Amino acid sequence: MFTPIKDILAGKYENQEVNVRGWIYRTRSSGKLAFVTLRDASGIIQATVAKNDVEEKDFENAKKALIESSVKIFGVVAKDKRAPGGYEIRAKKFELIGKADAFPITEYQSEEFLLDKRHLWIRSRELMNVMKIKASLLKYVREWFNENSFYEVTPPTITPNACEGGTTLFEFNYFDKKAFLSQSAQLYLEALIYSLERVWSLTPSFRAEKSKTRRHLAEYWHLEAEEAWVGNEENMKLQEELISYICQSLAKNNRDELEFFKRKTETLKNIEPPFERIKYEKAVEILKNKDFDLNYGMDFGTKEESALCSDIEKPVFITNFPKTVKPFYMKEADEKTYLCADLLAPEGYGEIIGGSERETDYNKLVERMKKQNMSMKDYEWYIDLRKYGSVQHSGFGLGVERIVRWVCKLEHIRDAIPFPRTINRVYP
Ligand code: ATP
Ligand code: MG
């Protein structure tokens, strides 16, 4: 049996014998003593290997093994103030399992080098903590959807439709036809509400984002929900409850990781419904007062969003965007605007969710699609949904890496995913 390092650091094994296994994080030796800091998925602990306590071969290995070698250690746990974490293991056996070559990643490497060595860099404290936050977040999301009677569904990621607009589509040969990698599961979720009413899905979405920003990936994890019988206001309530649940759960259960990123749990605990709602029109006024040069009808870019959300403590909804900047499927609020909302994260992190009530009127949809020269043939199935028991419905899409970036205060979204895909990178 092997003991997770975290449990030893929690003080459960003082003066007891344990078996641990992991990878060498740091190592140094002096004379008859080797100090080997060991890392497993749960934590880091120091082991001392004394020449007189282990077999000669093991002591040589403990002295010589380079960082990232995999090892198994058997020994006694001792409380020791000098050891990082307050406990150390006094080894009785030291078994070298996989000897490591000289690890290419040392301190002060360029970003590009770390991205080239991503398969190794994911062992870093930073990325391990990001991945733990992400795994927890996905767990909380599942809990929340289960609690709220949503069905998880599995829509396709190969599609004949564009959905969010043609310019950022990845196209490929699908046997003898053209097909696309999905940008959103929304249209399929809309179809699924007629069987299950409340549905959600987690799929990769693909967007050929040609501009380099710190919040766009070419492949990201998209969490989408769609609900029958509700309008946009209820849709927003759902979003603020979900986001609050995620923040509360992280604050409660992920203290260590949050601390690593200097994210105060108090900040997350304060995130509770309701979130402020600001109409696009009002947002334009706010921006103009901040000396932005823009007019009604223009979309918000990174700078505009940052200006709207840098001084706030809770996420904020920007609602009622003009039709000119949003896709064809949204329901109109009035002649100029849609019943929609983007949710912006605090501290300038910008959009984390896009949502709307969907158009249910067959003729209006067809008219808009024709205006935009969309292929009626490819979307026939979608407008068909308006013919067989159409109901009011709304939904939203959340970028998982966008939330992780915000919660972990990451400079760049690529660190919210283990193997980032961006305009100039598909390796490793
Ligand atoms: P943006 O204006 O930031 O490009 P969008 O309007 O294209 O976002 P939607 O089409 O509404 O975004 O997608 C839903 C959510 O998916 C967004 O709110 C965001 O959280 C996330 N998202 C969109 N594009 C990306 C991307 N390229 N990389 C990572 N997450 C993304
Ligand atoms: Mg976009």
Question: What is the structure about, briefly put?
Answer:
The protein has helices spanning 5-9, 56-64, 111-116, 118-121, 125-147, 186-196, 232-253, 255-260, 265-269, 280-289, 302-309, 362-371, 380-384, 400-407; strands at 17-30, 33-39, 44-50, 70-79, 87-98, 151-152, 158-159, 171-174, 177-181, 198-206, 219-228, 276-279, 316-319, 340-345, 350-357, 393-399.
CATH architecture classification name of the largest domain: 2-Layer Sandwich
Count of the separate structural domains: 2
Number of helices: 14
CATH topology of the largest domain: BirA Bifunctional Protein, domain 2
Question: How many β-strand stretches?
Answer: 16
Shape: elongated
Q: Could you give me the name of the CATH homologous superfamily of the largest domain?
A: Bira Bifunctional Protein, Domain 2
Helix percentage range: 25-40%
Radius of gyration: 26 Å
Across the major sheet, the strand order is 6-10-11-16-15-14-13-12
Poorly predicted regions are none
State the oligomer.
single chain
Which molecules other than protein and nucleic acid are bound? adenosine-5'-triphosphate, magnesium ion
* Classification by helices and strands: alpha+beta
Give a verbal description of the structure.
- With 428 residues, the protein is an alpha+beta fold.
- The protein has 14 helices and 16 strands.
- It is elongated, with a radius of gyration of 26 Å.
- The model has no long low-confidence stretch (mean pLDDT 96).
- It binds adenosine-5'-triphosphate (ATP) and magnesium ion.
- The site of adenosine-5'-triphosphate has 16 residues, from β11, β15, β16 and α14.
